[in-house]
């Protein structure tokens, strides 16, 4: 159990803390929830950086890291829907993309093909995290311009979610079809 794997597990353990803060409806709960979410999300880049830098990449880490990311983002999206801050179709689209990419990676892995994370996938994650945080911070608005920053940030996240999903499917299909490993 190395440090990167501990950070990944910490991210998973922070999910119930995040959910508890949101559901207990405590004073400044949304702000605290956003802080817990940012703390959890920040471990994502940190665990990968440490694992690569110290040559501590493990099979457990390769499995748990993306799972922890998906659980964290899915939990936040579902809570935002429950709170009436996000349309359900947005959550379904984002979570559905995650299932699709995970399924494609599983099929590819069974064929001995590795579909690596792309820069678009990383942009997707960053934009989703930003959008979720902005929405928890009371859907911060630029009232003087008439813009809802939460909706704009989520629209950007949806754009990158779709774009990266299409990119993964396209790359995965071509790798499987051509037998390029």
From TrEMBL:
Native source organism of the sequence: Desulforamulus profundi
GO biological process: phosphatidylglycerol biosynthetic process
Keyword Lipid metabolism (UniProt): yes
Functional pathway: Phospholipid metabolism; phosphatidylglycerol biosynthesis; phosphatidylglycerol from CDP-diacylglycerol: step 1/2; Lipid metabolism
Keyword terms of this UniProt record: Cell membrane, Lipid biosynthesis, Lipid metabolism, Membrane, Phospholipid biosynthesis, Phospholipid metabolism, Transferase, Transmembrane, Transmembrane helix
GO molecular function: CDP-diacylglycerol-glycerol-3-phosphate 3-phosphatidyltransferase activity
One Pfam family cited in the UniProt record for this chain: CDP-OH_P_transf
Keyword tRNA-binding: no
Primary location group: membrane
Subcellular location: Cell membrane
Functional summary from the UniProt entry: This protein catalyzes the committed step to the synthesis of the acidic phospholipids.
Gene3D superfamilies membership: 1.20.120.1760
Family: Belongs to the CDP-alcohol phosphatidyltransferase class-I family.
Transmembrane segments: 6-24, 31-51, 71-95, 126-146, 152-169
Name of the featured protein: CDP-diacylglycerol--glycerol-3-phosphate 3-phosphatidyltransferase
Record-listed E.C. numbers: 2.7.8.5
Bilayer topology: Multi-pass membrane protein
GO-annotated cellular components: plasma membrane
